[in-house]
């Protein structure tokens, strides 16, 4: 497998971790090098294939993240913000690329990734799907074309296990809308409305979050103007789209200089 990209998967036992492991096995040009789990997890020391209820695949789950990362060419990481920062530091130390699909990171945590990006290639995106990244581009362009007579609302829906809101994708879309209007999202963000909130402030970008059932991911960007509405929509029906996007990003990082990238770079959609 010397001519294929060796991938380490963090949070291997999670829904995205297992999806990534299965998709890597089915994708040409990549192979699973290591599977990382937290200390004390039942998977540690087990063959990952067997832990997933299938045939052995020869990869033993480990809690030694430093060793597992050093053995790979790229790490794919859909975990939690604090863990992602630790993995990023290890990637920088080993010179291993880091593909980050973790959501819920604060601006301060994202800024902490900058030091790691000086030593390795980092691709970070709130959503890895092709469709969502096209939607980001469309959102930016529509926002630039319309004035503040059009209120912008980002409406997102996810499964009831999701712990952060608005979703990382919703924030990507909000950032795109803000960029289109030439403003900073933090200055115009309006979310978590409840009670007597008063009239909507002109120029604000609103967020609404729905949580329920097994919804994979639904995102609408609504531009509501006098007498008309424009709605841009993306529906994800299978997490496989995120796994495929992350693996595409992992392959793309090979040979890339250290730096901070996103899926628009991977997909060649950046202006």
UniProtKB/TrEMBL annotation:
The active site is at residues 158, 162. Keywords: Amino-acid biosynthesis, Cytoplasm, Diaminopimelate biosynthesis, Lysine biosynthesis, NAD, NADP, Oxidoreductase. InterPro entries: DapB_C, DapB_N, DapB_N_CS, DHDPR_bac, NAD(P)-bd_dom_sf. Residues 7-128 form the Dihydrodipicolinate reductase N-terminal domain. One of its GO terms (cellular component) is cytosol. One of its GO terms (biological process) is lysine biosynthetic process via diaminopimelate. It is found in: Cytoplasm. SUPFAM superfamilies: Glyceraldehyde-3-phosphate dehydrogenase-like, C-terminal domain, NAD(P)-binding Rossmann-fold domains. PROSITE patterns: DAPB. NADP(+) binds at residue 38. Pathway: Amino-acid biosynthesis; L-lysine biosynthesis via DAP pathway; (S)-tetrahydrodipicolinate from L-aspartate: step 4/4. CDD domains: DHDPR_N (cd02274). It comes from the Bacteria. Homotetramer. Belongs to the DapB family. Catalyzes the conversion of 4-hydroxy-tetrahydrodipicolinate (HTPA) to tetrahydrodipicolinate. This is 4-hydroxy-tetrahydrodipicolinate reductase. It comes from Pseudosulfitobacter pseudonitzschiae. The gene is dapB.
């Amino acid at each position: 497998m010397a001519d294929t990209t060796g991938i380490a998967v963090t949070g291997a036992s999670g829904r995205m971790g297992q999806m990534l492991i299965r998709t890597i096995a089915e994708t040409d040009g990549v192979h699973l090098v290591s599977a990382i789990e937290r200390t004390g997890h039942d998977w540690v020391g087990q063959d990952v294939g067997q832990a997933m209820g299938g045939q052995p695949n020869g990869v033993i789950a480990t809690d030694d993240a430093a060793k597992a990362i050093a053995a790979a060419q790229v790490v794919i990481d859909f975990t939690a913000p604090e863990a992602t920062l630790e993995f990023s530091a290890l990637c920088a130390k080993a010179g291993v690329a880091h593909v980050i699909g973790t959501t819920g990171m604060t601006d301060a945590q994202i800024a902490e990734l900058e030091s790691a990006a000086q030593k390795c290639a980092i691709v970070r995106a709130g959503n890895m799907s092709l469709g969502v990244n096209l939607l980001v581009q469309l959102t930016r362009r529509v926002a630039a074309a319309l004035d503040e007579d059009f209120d912008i609302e980002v409406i997102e829906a996810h499964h009831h296990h999701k712990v952060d809101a608005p979703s990382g994708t919703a924030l990507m879309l909000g950032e795109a809308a803000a960029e289109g209007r030439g403003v900073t999202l933090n200055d115009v963000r309006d979310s978590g409305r409840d009670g007597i909130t008063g009239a909507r402030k002109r120029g604000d970008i609103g967020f609404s979050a729905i949580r329920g059932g097994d919804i994979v991911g639904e995102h609408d960007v609504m531009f509501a103007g006098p007498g008309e509405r424009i709605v841009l929509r993306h529906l994800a029906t299978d997490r496989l789209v995120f796994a495929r996007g992350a693996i595409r990003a992992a392959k793309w990082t090979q040979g890339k200089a250290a730096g901070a990238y996103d899926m628009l770079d991977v997909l060649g959609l950046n202006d």
